Amino acid sequence: MFSLRMATKPAATTSRLLSAMSLSARFKSTAASQGLKDRLRELIPQKRAEFKEVKEKYGKESLGEVTVDMALGGMRGIKGLVWDTSLLDANEGIRFRGYTIPELREKLPTVTPGGEPTPEALFWLLVTGELPTAEQVKSVSQELAARASVPQFVNDIIDSCPSTLHPMSQLALAVNALQHDSNFAKAYHEGISKNDYWDPVYEDTMDLLAKLPLIAARIYRNVFKDGKLPAIDNSADYSQNFATLLGFGENTKFVELLRLYLVIHSDHEGGNVSAHTTHLVGSALSDPYHSFAAGLNGLAGPLHGLANQEVLNWILSMTKELGTTTPTEEQIREYCDSTLKSGRVIPGYGHAVLRKTDPRYMAQREFALKHLPEDPLFKTVSNLYKIVPEILSKQGKIKNPWPNVDAHSGVLLRHYGLVEQNYYTVLFGVSRAFGVLGQLIWDRVLCLPIERPKSLTTESIKKMFENKSKL
Ligand code: CMX
């Protein structure tokens, strides 16, 4: 593939080739000290062979039919892309490389005994398919801490944003600006071989994951606090550092919550808007920064990640309107009815794939039952869980009346003092990076092609079937 491309690109000089080779060699030499990258490199030949075998053996098999309803209805249920890091079952919920959330909470190494797993541990699992040891997790934590620095011009961009610019817009802006230092963009420009794309994508991924807490916390501090950021601790884990940057590092329960939060929001197979967008944009060989920034813009939609902000806005509007922090079941019912009558959705409920209560909701509920059972807002969230599914089901059109991940997250954050709900989707975004970038590495390992599904016009669909219906 590489030689073909070089043959058709006479402008590629020997010096560019040499420079590409030395870049690749640089990545290989740094790999010696990087446990995760070493393991990934070992796995690649076997996984490429498996992928090739599946293509050769089953390439002509059908994955199911596509109906006109599916094309008109947001492509629901169409099996049209590969996503190896996680798989969503409508009833069981998400499995990360085969493990459910309860299994992850039991099997992944933790920082505190009996505590929550860390996003670093999950990332190792997502990238390798293997449960890491505590030592391997520590090596990822240290590597991310060592890479955590942000160019001054990116800080300046964030600092120049008006505080009225939504934190998600600021986050996407900063991620796009970090693209300035993309290893992949540079390596591509210098003519790296397709077989080696994964290597600078891995480097960009690690850099981006490392920098996200710094830019996310800078946004938080600028918009809601005094704009000053503390230094990070190279010996601390990712969530401890992120919590410290946000100003909550001394609250051990908040740090535990953040660990859980960053794990459960990371990945939800490939079809959701943020995951699919990152994957789609990455398929054009846009680097991880451009790809993930695009995904963040999708996450900022109120039907997707922004729903966590909307849930709290909605609950707080309800308690304000009713003049009580503990509304009765009857009052909640009436408020739900008025929301639906006004043509709005009840945020935090429903899902395009799930048909049961989201296990990510349950994990957060368990955390709340353990740590904040008496919180009045948690009691309201619990009452909503009792009431809303029945109300939504009665409408007769919703396919899943049960709560999703966003129905619960805000109340937990608020309990520990993170009360600025416009910021909540940024936390979702930092977490989502672990999932979508983990898969993006595999997209390049497997040399997945540029995405290009077929679209139709309404007219062409009509024409396709009108003669058939006359028969
Ligand atoms: N409140 C009121 N009506 C709802 C509803 C809700 N929470 N969820 C779905 N419906 C309605 C839909 O709007 C749709 O109505 P129309 O036929 O009039 O258009 C009907 O029920 C059928 O929808 P569906 O097939 O069950 O759901 P979709 O797959 O189309 O949409 C989702 C899924 C999540 C967008 C939708 O349930 C929703 O809008 N929920 C509220 C927003 C939310 O919580 N989003 C977060 C999802 C998780 C995440 O990505 O973070």
From TrEMBL:
Biological processes annotated in GO: carbohydrate metabolic process; citrate metabolic process; tricarboxylic acid cycle
A single MF term (Gene Ontology): acyltransferase activity, acyl groups converted into alkyl on transfer
Family: Belongs to the citrate synthase family.
InterPro entries: Citrate_synth-like_lrg_a-sub, Citrate_synth-like_sm_a-sub, Citrate_synthase, Citrate_synthase_AS, Citrate_synthase_euk, Citrate_synthase_sf
Keyword field: Acyltransferase, Transferase
Keyword Transferase: yes
Entry superkingdom: Eukaryota
Membrane-crossing residue ranges in chain numbering: none
Name of this protein: Citrate synthase
Active site feature: 304, 351, 406
A single Gene Ontology CC term: mitochondrial matrix
Natural source organism: Mycoemilia scoparia
